[in-house]
Structures are given as structure tokens and as C-alpha cells.
Amino acid sequence: MLFFAAESADGGLAFPSLSNLIEWAPIIDGIGLDKIGLTHFLGMLLPAALFLIAGTQKSLVPTGVRGVVESIIEMVEKQIILPAIGPGGLPYLPLLLSFFVFVFIGNITEVIPFFQMPANGRMGGPLVLALISWAVFIVVGVKHNGIKYIVDIAWPPNVPLALKPVVGFIELLSTFLLRPFSHSVRLFANMLAGHILLVTFSVLTIATFGGLTLIVWPFAFGGLIAFTAFEVFVSFIQAFVFTILAAVYIGGALHPAH
To answer: Which residue ranges make up each domain of the chain?
Structure first.
């Protein structure tokens, strides 16, 4: 931020380009592991470690790590699976729990020193997760309803005959092509927008610290603090939204008549 807030050649404020905000040099030369890759790696490693630690605790009353883990499981089960799918969705708890925790870690790094970048602010991670969700609900739909699952989407029942081709084409397009795109872009765009917002207020906070612009500094710094707290909330909400959408898609494949 100190580098970005430096004055440009003409004396104006040098704001970082978009590439400066999302591209990072490799942390370890030779293997290409940057902050984004490290965050995704930690998104797999940390939950696995926490769940293994929680599994070793045998006390009747959950405390510490086990209490946190059980709270997350209960939240995903009662606030996502049961409302979106119903009791029949409980076999998908491991998948949806993994989605939530992995996405949350990829979001919250936005406000963690050293990282200061949401991994989901790059399109690759959200797209891979959305494609996994896409593949799962298609497999679930065909497994539980046979080829009728796809036929009913392409040639929807209870629709006037003249409208069936049009409605079927729209349903096929939205279900099998646009759904993974919208699922991933919703997460990616929100996290990237929040990242740019925090960078903006960081630059303003540093650039206004001194001279006549010092009068603006409290507002810039106050905005930075407020938006940092807001992005913590957004990190949770976006993980929740991504996971509940995946649950809704699976629920729709299980019960297409609804």
C-alpha cells in the first residue's frame, strides 16, 4: 500500500492497476505457489486438521475445537441442508460442509495480514467449485430420476405444447450452461469488489496522512475500519450463499417435480 500510495510523476495519486491487485509473485521460486495457491492449500489442510483434532475428543460436552467444529456442522445441517433439501439431503453433508469451510477460508484471507487477498477474488477457485456442484447435481438427478430428469427439463410437462420448445431450450441453457457460470461469478465478483474497496480505502488512508489532506484522513481511516469489518461479514455470507445454492441445485435434482 505504501508503494501504491506513492505520488506519480505528475504529482497525483498512483492507484494500483487491476493486475497489481490480483497477481502475486510466487512465494517459492520454481513451483509457482503464490498467495492464491497457498490459500487454497490451507483451505484443505486447516479444516482437515481441525476435524481430526475434534474427532479425538471424547468428552460428552464439546469444548474448544470440537465445539467450534460441531457448531459449523450443525449450522450447515440445520440452516442449509434441511431447508434447501430436507432430511434426504443429509448424505450430502460432507460435500456441502466442505464447500462452506473451503469457501470461507478462501474469503477471509482478504482481511488477514500477509495474505490480504481473497483467493476467491480470482475466478479459478470459484469456477472449479461450481463445476463440482454442477457435476454432482446432474449425477444426482439422473441417478434418482433416470433420463426422465433431463427429458423433463428439455420438454417440460404442464407447459402448453406451443411453448414447450422455447421453455425447454431456456431451461436447458440455464440449468446446464449458465448455472455453473452464475454460481461462480456471484462469489468471484463479490469478493473481488470487496478487495478493490479495501485497497481503495487503504491507499486513501496512507495518501491523506499529512499536509492539508489530513482533515480527510479520519474519514478514510474510519471507512477502512468499517469496510474491513463488513468484509468479514461478507466472507461468511458469500460462503453461506455459495453452499446453499449448491444445496438448492441438489435438492432440485432429487425432487425435480418441486
So the answer is: 18-254
